[in-house]
Amino acid sequence: MVNAGEMNGSGNLMDFLDEPFPDVGTYEDFHTIDWLREKSRDTDRHRKITSKSKESIWEFIKSLLDAWSGWVVMLLIGLLAGTLAGVIDLAVDWMTDLKEGVCLSAFWYSHEQCCWTSNETTFDDRDKCPQWQKWSELLVNQSEGASAYILNYFLYILWALCFAFLAVSLVRVFAPYACGSGIPEIKTILSGFIIRGYLGKWTLLIKTVTLVLVVSSGLSLGKEGPLVHVACCCGNFFSSLFSKYSKNEGKRREVLSAAAAAGVSVAFGAPIGGVLFSLEEVSYYFPLKTLWRSFFAALVAAFTLRSINPFGNSRLVLFYVEYHTPWRRKTTRLGKYPVLEVIVITAITAIIAYPNPYTRRSTSELISELFNDCGALESSQLCDYINDPNMTRPVDDIPDRPAGPGVYTAMWQLALALVFKIVITIFTFGMKIPSGLFIPSMAVGAMAGRMVGIGVEQLAYHHHDWIIFRNWCRPGADCVTPGLYAMVGAAACLGGVTRMTVSLVVIMFELTGGLEYIVPLMAAAVTSKWVADAFGKEGIYEAHIHLNGYPFLDVKDEFTHRTLATDVMRPRRGEAPLSVLTQDSMTVEDVETLIKETDYNGFPVVVSKDSERLIGFAQRRELILAIKNARQRQDGVVSNSIVYFTEDPPELPPNSPHPLKLRRILNLSPFTVTDHTPMETVVDIFRKLGLRQCLVTRSGRLLGIITKKDVLRHMAQMANQDPESIMFN
After folding, report:
1. Which of 204, 265, 313, 594 could form a Cys-Cys staple with 274, CB 3.0–4.6 A?
2. CATH class of the structural domain 329-386+399-548
3. How far apart are CA 242 and CA 448, in angstroms?
4. CB–CB of 609/1 below 8 Å?
5. How far apart are CA 277 and CA 619, in angstroms?
6. Tell me, what DSSP letter sits at residue 657?
7. Residues in domain CBS (predicted)?
8. Stated pTM of the model
C-alpha cells in the first residue's frame, strides 16, 4: 500500500480548492441561506483585510474603502430611491388628471400645476383656469350639460382601462415578480430565503413604470408598499457593485433592510418611521450598524424627495399619508385570466367611482381632505356649516356649528364611498399588478372616522348638556375636531390590517406633523391590534407569507408543545436510512449517484456507515460544483477516484486513480442537538440563528436531521393545520 501523493511523484497532494472557483458559496433559487456560515465568511474576509492593511499604504487605503463601502451604498440607495419616488409622484399626479382633461399651455402639467401658472385664477375658483380644459370642452366645446358629462364619463373609463391594460401586460410579459406589494416577499427574503429575480433590474424598471399606471388608473390600491419593493431593488442593484455584499448573502440582507427603511421614508415622508418599520415589521437580522445605516439611507432618500418637491408644497407627501400589501388570488376563475381580471375590475371601479366625488379623486387627495380641519377659507362640502352672523371670533378659533346641507350631502356620499372602497379593495388585491394596501386601508378608516367625528360634533353642539359633554364642552366652544377622528380612524384601520404599533404611530405623526396627537394615535394602534388579534394573530404580511407557503419562521409565534427533536427528525421509523457521505471510502461515481438519486440540499459526512460518527456537513450545490471543476482542472480525477474529506489522503492500492480532496467545502462545525432536546428549544435556535438544518446526534453518533421545513411542518401540525399546505413549491 502506498500513499497516493508518492504514487504521483509529489510529496504533497494538491487541493485544487485552495483557489476559489465560480459559484462556490452561492445558493440555488428558492433555498434558504446559512446565516452562521455567511457570518463566518464575512469575519474571515474582514480578518484578512485587516491583516493585509498593515503590509502597505495601498492595502491600508483598500481597507478604508471597504469600511466606507457600506455608507456609499446607503448614499446611492437613498439618492436613487428618492429620485424614483419623486418621478413616480409627478407622473401619477399628471396621469390622474389626464383622465379628466389636459393643460393647453403645457400638456405635461397636472391640473394644479396648470392653474398655478395662470394669471387669471382667483382664490374662490382656484381649480378653474382657461388653460385647463376638460375633454368635453376640448372636443365638443361644451363644459356643462348631459352630453358633456357623458363624454367626460366615457373618456375617464377609457383612460383608466388603457392604463390598467398596459400595466398588467407589461408585468405579465416582462416582469411577473413586479405584481403585488412586495413586502411579504421582501420579509421572506430578509429572513434568508432566495427568490432570484425578485429584486432584479427588470423588476425595478417594470414596477416603477406600472406603479404609475395602476395608481393613475384609479384602482383601489396605493403606491407605498410597492415603493418599498422598488427601494429594495435599488439596494440589490448597488449591492451587486461591491464584492463585500455581492458575495455574501447575509451582508446583502443588511443592505436590503436599510433599503426597506428608505422605501418607507419616501413613501410616507417619514424617515424615522421607516427605520422603525424595517426594525419592527420587515427585518429578520438587524444589528446596530444596520440601524445607523438605515437611518442614513432614509434621511438621504427623504432629502432627495424633498429636493424634487413633487407636490410643490415643500412636503414629502401630498397631504400626509399612505402605504402597502396584497393578496394573490389562487383559486378563483378570474384569477386564471389575469389580464381580463384587471380589465373587469378597472371597468367596474371607473364606472362606479366617477359619479361620486369622493371616489373619483385620487385616494391620497381624499385622505388629505378628510384629515383637514374646517377653517374659514375651506370650500369643501365637509365644511358647509351654518355660521353665526354675529360671530366675532378669529378665523382660527371657530366654535362648533350646526351642519349645513353640504355636510349632510357629504355624509351620505362618504357612506357610499366607504362601502364601495371596502368591497372593491377586496377584489382589487391579488391582481397581477403592483399594488399596496396602506392607502386603501387608511382611506376606509379616515372615511369612517370623519363620519363618526361629524356625528359626535353635532351631538356635542345640540346636546352639550349631556353628561358625556357637560364637563368639557361648553356652548360656543370648539369641542370636537372631525379631522382628528379621521386621522385616528386611519391609524386604527391600518393597524388592524398590519398589526403595526410603534412604527405606525411614528409614521402617522411624521405624516401629519401632529405630535400633540400621539396619545390618541397610540390608543388607536393598541386597541386596533387587540381587536384584530381577537379574530386572528396574523397581520396581512404574515397571512400573505402563509398563503404562498414561504418558509418563514415568525419570531412572534409561540411554540409551547412538549415534543422532542426525535419526534421531528428524519428518518423516522419505517423510512429509508439517512443519506450520508463517508470521509474516505466513496468514489466520485458514488457521490454523483447519491446526488442524482436524491434532492437533499446537503449530506452529513460520517467516519463510516458502520460507526456513523459525525465529521461534518457538505452542501449539495458545492459538491456538484467541486466535482465539476475538479474534472476540468485536476488531472487524473475519474469516476472511480476516491473522494476524501480528511487532511491526509487515504492509503490506496498501487495504480489507483488520483483521489479527490474536498475537505475545504466541508463544514466541520455543523449545528447539532441531541435527540432529547425539546422542540421549543430547537424552534428558538432556528429563529435566532437562522439555521437551514441541524443534525441530531447521541453521544457523537448521527441519528437524523431536522430542516427548517421540518420545523414549519411540525408547527403547522401542532396547530391543527395541513403541514403540506404551507410549504412553498
Report:
1. 265
2. mainly alpha
3. 49
4. no
5. 35
6. P
7. 569-633, 666-724
8. 0.86
Query: What SS3 state is found at 174?
Result: helix
Segments making up each domain of the chain, as ranges? 329-386+399-548, 565-719
Pick the closest to residue 366 from 380, 351, 346 (CA basis).
Answer: 380
Cα 139 to chain centroid, rounded: 44
Assess whether the region 329-386+399-548 and the region 565-719 belong to the same CATH fold.
Answer: no
Average pLDDT for runs of 10 along the chain of length 729: 38 46 70 88 91 90 91 96 94 92 88 76 64 89 88 94 96 93 93 92 96 94 92 96 92 95 91 92 87 94 88 56 36 70 93 93 89 72 76 54 87 95 90 90 95 90 78 70 90 92 87 77 92 88 84 83 93 88 93 93 92 92 90 85 90 86 90 94 91 92 93 89 64
Task: Assign 702 to helix, strand or coil.
Answer: strand
Identify the DSSP state of 123: S
Q: Residue 571: is the preceding peptide bond cis (ω within 30°)? A: yes
- Nine-digit cell at 597? 438519486
Total residues found in the chain within this entry: 729
Placement of cell 438519486 in the chain: 597
In angstroms, the first-to-last Cα distance of the chain is 50
Q: Where are the beta strands (DSSP E) in 621-665?
A: 642-644, 651-652, 660-661
Q: Are 338 and 116 in contact (CB under 8 A)?
A: no
Instruction: Tell me the C-alpha distance between 694 and 690, whole Å.
Output: 11
Give the burial class of 285: count Cβ atoms within 10 A of its Cβ; 0-12 exposed, 13-18 middle, 19 or more buried: middle
C-beta of residue 255 within 8 angstroms of C-beta of residue 239: yes
SS3 354: coil
* Residue 505 and residue 525 in contact, taking contact as beta carbons nearer than 8 Å: yes
Instruction: Specify the residue for cell string 453521544.
Output: 699
Q: Which helix (H) or strand (E) holds 587?
A: strand 586-587
Q: Which of 310, 112, 343, 290 is nearest to 227 (CA)?
A: 310
For the residues of 219-271, what is the DSSP string, one character each?
-S-BSHHHHHHHHHHHHHHHHTTSHHHHT-HHHHHHHHHHHHHHHHHHHHT-H
